[in-house]
């Protein structure tokens, strides 16, 4: 019968979107909801980036560019990777795409065959399992929790590896947990990786948003690992450029070349204007965002620590905290039972007027995600509401 492809039919709707839809509906009805579910900085795009974007339009830089992105941008990205992470790449080792999400999709499509396994540490960003399935590969989930700071151990990795393992996905700093792997932890994982034959997709999109810790890339642990690593990053988070859609991948030239061919037949170059804006963004040195995010993280953690039945690990990066609400399971709020993080999030939205994302979509049924990419005022109001709610859970 006529109908959609199995591929598309198999995609689970984004769990963040249903909360988002309900939140927007409530706001449209004039209800004062505080939105702690957003995945983008509340800061503006840096002026240098905006100016470069405007200049691109004025100068008619509005046509197709080279598929992997303009050389000027790729050179500058390579220079930044050298400066920030001490990694040696040239412009030819970089493929610029329409957002890091697009880079990730290119990577999975180019690396995975049907039946290949992708090792995916949980909690994971919601799009990874769907992208893996779109590439007809199988996600092999490694569960983690607060006991290891939401990080996988070398033993867990070793156990998850099979002859079908094609890719290990790493995301540090992590969405949704904010966890950042230390140099020692990565070195131990690199030891395991180097004993086997598979690729590493290292999503480092939050790499500039770290608080008092060093960001280290798995690609720095020797030539062999670097060759097998596809480093993913982009401009959305570090430069508040979510709408411009610029992300990139750095990796071995042969892989980049293959993915460039793939991109040439699917989307071709990312927006010429956005690429110019990204060139501008790389001149921007943040002085406000990181200290502000750090303040807010500390504020939220401090408030949550004083609330009954919630506990929360201290994340070192990104702009999320990921509290554990499982102590509420089996209890209720004003007669409404709380048996899951979904119940918890729905009740919070309806009764406390706070929108946040339940952990279920991230493979973490005991937790929920708070994004602190919103004003201090909003955070204070939200924490007051959350506290009042928690005090009524019995
Ligand atoms: N990777 C992670 C872990 C993310 O959280 C996001 C955005 O939420 C992305 C990648 C995609 O970013 P973009 O496509 O905007 O560059």
Automatic annotation (TrEMBL):
UniProt xrefs under Pfam families: Aminotran_1_2
Enzyme class: transferase
Protein's UniProt keywords contain Transferase: yes
Keyword check for Transferase: yes
Entries under PROSITE patterns matching the protein: AA_TRANSFER_CLASS_1
Family: Belongs to the class-I pyridoxal-phosphate-dependent aminotransferase family.
Name of the protein described by the UniProt record: Aminotransferase
Organism annotation: Tumebacillus lipolyticus
């Amino acid at each position: 019968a006529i109908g959609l492809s199995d591929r598309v039919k198999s995609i689970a709707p984004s769990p963040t979107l249903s909360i988002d839809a309900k939140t927007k509906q409530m706001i449209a009805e004039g209800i004062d909801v505080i939105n702690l579910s957003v995945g983008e900085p509340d800061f503006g795009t840096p002026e240098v980036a905006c100016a470069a974007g405007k200049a691109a339009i004025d100068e008619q830089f509005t046509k197709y560019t080279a598929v992997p992105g303009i050389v000027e941008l790729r050179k500058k990205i390579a220079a930044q990777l050298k400066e920030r992470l001490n990694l040696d790449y040239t412009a030819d080792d970089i493929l610029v795409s329409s957002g890091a999400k697009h880079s990730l999709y290119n990577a999975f499509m180019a690396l995975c065959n049907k039946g290949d396994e992708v090792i995916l540490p949980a909690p994971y960003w919601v799009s990874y399992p769907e992208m893996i399935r779109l590439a007809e590969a199988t996600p092999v989930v490694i569960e983690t929790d607060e006991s290891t700071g939401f990080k996988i151990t070398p033993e867990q990795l070793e156990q998850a590896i099979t002859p079908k393992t094609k890719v290990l996905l790493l995301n540090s700093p992590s969405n949704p947990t904010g966890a950042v792997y230390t140099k020692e932890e990565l070195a131990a994982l690199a030891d395991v990786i180097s004993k086997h034959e598979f690729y590493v997709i290292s999503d480092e999109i939050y790499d500039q948003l770290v608080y008092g810790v060093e960001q280290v890339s798995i690609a720095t642990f020797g030539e062999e690992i670097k060759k097998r690593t596809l480093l993913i990053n982009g401009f959305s988070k570090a430069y508040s450029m979510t709408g411009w859609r610029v992300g990139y991948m750095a990796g071995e030239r042969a892989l980049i070349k293959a993915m460039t061919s793939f991109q040439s037949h699917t989307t071709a170059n990312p927006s010429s204007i956005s690429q110019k804006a990204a060139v501008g963004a790389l001149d921007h040195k943040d002085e406000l965002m990181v200290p502000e995010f750090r303040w807010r993280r500390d504020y939220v953690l401090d408030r949550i620590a004083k609330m009954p039945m919630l506990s929360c690990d201290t994340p070192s990066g990104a702009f999320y905290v990921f509290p554990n609400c499982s102590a509420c399971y089996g209890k209720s709020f004003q007669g409404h039972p709380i048996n899951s993080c979904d119940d918890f999030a729905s009740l919070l939205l309806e009764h406390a007027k706070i929108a946040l994302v339940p952990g279920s979509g991230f493979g973490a049924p005991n937790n929920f995600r708070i994004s602190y990419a919103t004003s201090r005022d909003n955070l204070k109001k939200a924490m007051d509401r959350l506290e009042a709610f928690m005090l009524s859970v019995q």
